[in-house]
Amino acid sequence: MSKSRENRLRDINKRKRRRRRAKIVFFGALILAVLLIALIYITEIRERTYRAYEVLSSSDYTDDMATGFLPYGEGMIRYNRNGALAYNRDAKPIWNGSYEMQNPIGDVCKEYAVVADRGDKSIEIFNKKGSVGRIITINNILKVEVAQQGVVAVLSGDEDSNYINLYSKDGKELVDAKITNVSEEGYPIDISLSEDGKKLVVSHIAVNQGELVSYLAFYNFGEVGQNEPGRLVGGVFYENVVIPRVTFLNNDYVGVYKEDSVMLFHMEEIPELIIEHEFEEEIKSILYDEKHYGLVLERKDALHKKILLYNLKGKKVLEEEIDFNYDKIFLYDEEIIIHDNLSAKIFKLNGIEKFSYTFSNNISAIYPINKIERYLLVGGDKVSSIKLIN
Description:
There is one protein chain. The chain is mainly beta. The chain is built from two helices and 32 strands. The strands form eight sheets. Strands 1-32-31-30 form a four-stranded antiparallel β-sheet, with no helix packed on it. Strand 14 and strand 15 (199-208) form a beta hairpin.
């Protein structure tokens, strides 16, 4: 091959390489620009504030004094004495489960939901397809919780003793344990079940020689707890204090709420206290999700309150003052939703007030559908899918 031909081929290859590099640079810059624009748009959307809404679709419903509501995926569950009804994101019913109860209570974890008759013995288990099981307990039910695979934990009792039972979703009894003798050990006042259904924490209260005593009991129903008496893997006593609420934030972290403090335990298998926050003000409400725990402190004048929120390392991520006498407050999908029977406020975790509105009809519940502007609103005689607008 002649040198001139070699030079021509070399020049052609150089031009091809330059074109390839130019294309790579161009498309790389284009992708970067698109990502930057998308980031700016998402940030703007997430920090946008709204002062109105529009109804996209709705369904009629009849209210009941015993009606309760639970967030469920992108929808919600409404339950009362006659049954449970699940709605999708468009406020349309997707299943209906019938039963008869006098005092229904409910819980949700992932795809599973449970409704039980507090003070009686019946339990109904549901998933995204509807009813999947029914349980009849021996003793009267005090509280129930459900795990992500449908395992149900039941706190029940009679005049003399209290019991913890675990059931599979088809009603098979997995654990049957007597946890307290009422006359000697007092009463359990709250329980919480881990997401995998293998760990449980119970808060007890008793009077010992005239002194108030609270007791936290940690149970492990997996391999680690099988060699421990009663599956008890940890316990802590507290004098002159009440522990009204305990809750698994996720599968391995437990929030424990006293009257004037909150504690965070790590419990991969056995419990370990990580941190405790103490307060001078009274705790009015508690907040939690899988990544955070927090509370609302009530000021002396009762109107002004402070929201405090922490991550799982105990670091404060939000401190927000509010002056709203709400009926309900909860943390869900990285938003704090507050409402009474007429007004609602929604805060982002960066403290931005996303939404504030006073409705013309009474409202009973409001739940997010996505992380932008869609919500389910229960008010008047309707369940509505709404979109927030400026």
